Amino acid sequence: MAYPSASDSTVQLLSLWEGEEMLETALTFNATDEANRSVVSEFVFLGLSSSWGIQLLLFLFSSVFYMASLMGNLLIVFSVTSDSKLHSPMYFLLANLSFLDLGVCSVAAPKMIYDLYRKHKSISFGGCITQIFFIHAIGGTEMVLLMAMAFDRYVAICRPLHYQAIMSTRMCILIPAIAWILGLIHSVAQLAFVVHLPFCGPNVLNSFYCDLPQLIKLACTDTSRLEFMVTANSGLISVGSFFTLMASYIFILVTVRKHSSGGSSKALSTLSAHITVVVLFFGPLIFFYTWPFPSSNLDKFLALFDAILTPLLNPVIYTLRNKEMKAAMRRLCSQLVGYRKMP
């Protein structure tokens, strides 16, 4: 019987050792590959700035304007609801706009203010999708509502004798219902494609909130068609709605100019407020979804403006020249503090 020599044994041991090492390397590679293919559980925000001094200023600025937005819009909603003199279609739609602005300023701003305290600014995948859902649902609803407000002004100025018949109670209830349905359809139609995208690698968003354009670019697949769909859905709708509204307001202004009655100045004041709100609302949207050369700093500035300032400017613009609204707000404030002014 032949016995293996020492050299043969050494060769066998070396072969076994190399085989185990190759197996261990393969297992490690497979584990790493599986980790890379796993679904991203959270996204990290770069935020507005890395400087603590600037973040402190942003915290003070954002907190003040966020609270002012909440107080201003709540004051409009309660004033219209409680004051019988404001129970008209125009003020009803204005109260609905303020209610939507409460949602606009509460979707991204609280999270942003909270993250200014933190080094690791993150949001879960589910939280990111939820944020996008409400941004587009409320944004789409507000878009339809602004068009309804333009229609209300058209009927009031161009067809005053038919105003009560057209803007009836049924119409006032139907407008917000249709606006919310279209807003929800707009949001769900886009998220239906995004939630199934594979996110397996990068998870850093150069922003302070989640939105579709930046999120889509993090997917581990070709998203060129989806980016086009988002541009067509959000970008073209925003541009089309903006120019439709501006055309309608120009038509109303031309109609008002032909009449030299005493109410023309009041109509012009009301329309100028509507046009200002439309520009503030659609300006950032058109830039976000149609501008081909993205700029991080400009994007962040417009996003901050849209999330914090626009919901505050809307109640200021609509109430600045409106004597009835200002009187109703004063009466409501007097009731809240337990003081009634003498007639």
Task: Please give the structural blueprint.
Blueprint: H1 6-37, E1 42-45, H2 52-82, H3 89-107, H4 109-115, E2 122-124, H5 125-158, H6 163-166, H7 169-194, E3 204-205, H8 212-216, H9 224-258, H10 264-290, H11 296-320, H12 323-336
Parallel strand pairs: 1-3
Antiparallel strand pairs: 1-2
Describe this structure in words.
The chain is mainly α and 343 residues long. The chain is built from twelve helices and three strands; from the N terminus they run αβαααβαααβααααα. Strands 2-1-3 form a three-stranded mixed β-sheet. Helix 5 (125-158) runs antiparallel to helix 7 (169-194). The chain is globular and about 60 Å long. The protein starts with 5 loop residues before the first helix and ends in a 7-residue tail after the last helix.
Radius of gyration in whole Å, from Cα?
28 Å
Distance between the termini: 124 Å
Overall SS class: mainly alpha
Provide the helix percentage.
over 70%
Order of helices and strands: HEHHHEHHHEHHHHH
Give the overall shape, derived from the CA principal axes. globular
Largest sheet: 3 strands, mixed
How many individual β-strands?
3
**Percentage beta strand:** under 5%
Q: Which spans have pLDDT < 50 for at least 5 consecutive residues?
A: 1-38
The number of distinct helices, counting runs of at least 4 residues, comes to: 12
Strand order in space, largest sheet: 2-1-3
Mean pLDDT, to the nearest integer, reads 79
